[in-house]
Structures are given as structure tokens and as C-alpha cells.
């Protein structure tokens, strides 16, 4: 799960895995596409901390 500031409703929302519709690769790392609680399609980078491979670094 991650938090995201929606560009449509301007609310910071908690995004659950069930809302993620796709994950694609990019040079900077994986990008998640998901549906916000307001219904808008959004995307956000998913990063991983180098020292702890299983710990997520969430974009603010």
C-alpha cells in the first residue's frame, strides 16, 4: 500500500493493492497505475531502498 496526493481531487489518499491496475518498468524504477478513491486514474513511482531491498520508499 502507498499514499498518494491525487492530481484530480487534491486529497492525500491511502492506495491499497486492490486499486493498482498495472505496474510498468522505467529507468527510474517501477511505476504503478491505480484508480484513486475519487475514480481518477493516477500513477506514481514505486522505489525500493538500496540498503533494505524489501522496504518501500514512498513518493510524497
Overall description:
The chain is an all-beta fold and 60 residues long. It is built from no helices and 6 strands. The protein has strands at 2-5, 12-15, 20-24, 31-35, 41-48, 56-58. A 4-stranded antiparallel β-sheet has the order 3-4-5-6, with no helix packed on it. The chain has a two-stranded antiparallel ribbon with strand order 1-2. A hairpin with a 5-residue loop joins strand 4 (31-35) and strand 5. It is globular. The two termini are 13 Å apart.
* Major sheet strand order: 3-4-5-6
Strand content is over 45%
Helical content (DSSP H or I, runs of 4+): under 10%
Total number of beta strands? 6
Q: What gross morphology would you assign?
A: globular
Biggest pleated-sheet summary: 4 strands, antiparallel
Helix and strand sequence: EEEEEE
Amino acid at each position: 500500500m502507498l499514499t498518494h496526493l491525487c492530481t484530480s481531487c487534491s486529497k492525500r489518499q491511502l492506495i491499497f493493492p486492490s486499486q493498482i491496475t498495472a505496474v510498468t518498468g522505467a529507468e527510474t524504477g517501477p511505476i504503478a497505475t491505480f484508480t484513486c478513491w475519487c475514480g481518477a486514474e493516477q500513477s506514481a513511482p514505486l522505489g525500493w531502498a538500496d540498503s533494505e531491498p524489501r522496504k518501500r520508499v514512498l513518493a510524497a
